[in-house]
Design a protein that fits this description.
This protein is of the alpha+beta class. It has one domain. The chain has helices at 2-10, 19-32, 34-42, 53-67, 76-85, and strands at residues 43-52, 89-93, 96-104. The chain contains 5 helices and 3 strands, in the order H-H-H-E-H-H-E-E.
């Protein structure tokens, strides 16, 4: 234990986390992150693809959330904030909000 304390005190970067632990933490975060799981299940990344928020949230996400009850559903505002926090850009065109970079694996049918 003293060796660990000495290493901690003498290392300017503090405790060094092994890569294996970092990978396990990342995997666990993805397991409990509804946005990451939603993207993995329903979407794929495609540079430049523009998807209207109405389709992304109202059709794709809400349908997915009904089937994945282990996650609390996000409000539209929370959903947009989480996507932006993950680096997805949004823009407005003709008073409609779009996100760039996410493409559905299957386009929903309109009813």
């Amino acid at each position: 234990m003293l060796t660990g304390a000495r290493d901690y005190l003498t290392n300017p970067n503090g405790i060094q986390v092994p890569e294996k632990v970092k990978a396990a933490i990342s995997h666990q975060r993805n397991e409990v992150d509804p946005i990451e799981t939603f993207i993995s299940d329903v979407m794929h990344l495609e540079d430049g693809f523009q998807l209207q928020l109405k389709v992304l949230y109202d059709q794709l996400y809400k349908d997915w959330a009904k089937q994945n009850v282990s996650f609390l559903p996000l409000t539209k505002k929370q959903f947009m904030a989480r996507l932006e926090a993950k680096g997805f850009k949004k823009f407005e065109k003709s008073r409609l909000i779009y996100f760039i970079g996410l493409r559905p694996n299957e386009m929903p049918t309109t009813s």
